[in-house]
Specification:
The chain has helices at 11-20, 78-87, 103-108, 125-139, 154-165, 171-181, 188-195, 202-205, 221-240, 254-268, 279-301, 305-326; strands spanning 3-7, 41-45, 55-57, 60-67, 70-73, 92-95, 112-115, 144-147. With 330 residues, the chain is α/β, with parallel strands linked by helices.
Amino acid sequence: MARFTVAASSLALVAGSVLLASCVHDEGSHTTAPVGEHHEIHTVATPSLDDTMPIHMPGLHNVVAYHDDFYSGSAPESDEGFDTLAAMGIRTIISVDGAVPEVDKAKAHGIRYIHLPIGYNGFDEQRKLELVRASRDALAEGPVYVHCHHGKHRSAGAAAAIASSLGWLTPDEAVERMHVSGTSSSYQGLYTCALESEPISDDRINLVPASFPEVSTPGSFVQGMVDIDIAVEHLKEIEKAGWKVPADHPDLVPAAEAGKLADLYRLLNDVEYKHNDSIEFVAWMDEAHTHSQQLEDMIVDGSSAELLSRQFDIIKASCTDCHAVYRNQR
């Protein structure tokens, strides 16, 4: 089984996770990782393809192997998460989340970032080719970590499609790894991306430009609000269909649209977009994100149409109240 190093400050948490996974090792050589010259180094086991449950580590959650040295999981939390990634020997992080990556923290740990966001409803062929080329080339330089926000859905869907496209796993095997990650069946678009992936030739992969951004520039605040309005309108169509996929709009998946709305609120309330002159506005955005995240969770959990509509009413009321102050009067 593979091994990685971790800083002493995180050892207790790592030990707990590793004991639960029954993979503590005391023997074997230590590997030096770029976690800082003042950190004492210890060695523990990395996730493997044999794992049937996601692994939780200091600052990282839902970590699952999709190939040797190729992992999916959550966004790293603070320096602790980057310490763990560096200890694993990760050389490249590929973020499929919409949030701006913490590039400077990664660089401080000897890791580079590639930012290729995808949605909850899946991704197109061009984005798949970009993910495949980025992963193939990065893996030649060392271990790769793919993350979204929670590490359950989008990063798993991307990792599965990459693994199938590079011939590491069959589509069915890749989907099984998504199940280990905990990807909800509500996100059928992500599963479809994995199931429809098949090995891609190097010649075709090489046609994709090899330069990828550290940060994909997000749209403007105004564009973000337009996207929120569109997501809300889509959810209205879904509500009319009894919180099912509308017959006349088969591309609207309830959980995916709710997840998109929650993500938009989270991203727009990032430091890049906050209206720093209004504490009330920031609080409204935080509240809207919380309500939208709750709606997504309720859809995934199979809540009744009545409860979903009540939750959606809360979101719509929040929009109306905010617009009355910040849009309609300006």
